[in-house]
Amino acid sequence: MRIIEGAGVWAGADGDWTEQLRTPDLSVGTYCIPAGGVDDQSPHTEDEIYVVTTGRARIVTPTGDAEVGPGAVIFVPAGEDHRFVDVTEDLTLLVVFGPAYGSRGPQSE
Fold first, then answer.
1. Where would I find the Cupin type-2 domain in this sequence (predicted)?
2. Cβ atoms of 44 and 107 closer than 8 Å
3. In the chain, what are the domains?
C-alpha cells in the first residue's frame, strides 16, 4: 500500500505534468492548466483516465466534446486526439495511464 502524495493537487504551472507513481502496468500523475491556458498535448500511446479535481473546461475529441468540472472522470483510449479547451478555472487533473506513461513508445507531447 502507498499513499500517493500530491496526486491531483494544483501545481500552478501551465501544462505542468508531474508523475507521482510509476509501475510497469500504470502511472499516476497530475496535469495542470491555468485558466485561459492552452493544452498542447498530443495523443498518447497508452490508455488514459482523467479525474478532474479542480477547475472547469471543455474536453474535445474526434468523437465529441463535453464540459467537465470537479468529479468528472474521462476515459481516453490510446491514440485518440484530445485536448482541454476553454479553461475557465485553473484545471487540475489526476491522470492514470495504463500501462505506464511512455511505456509503449515515444510520446509526442
1. 31-97
2. yes
3. 1-27+49-103 (2.60.120.10)
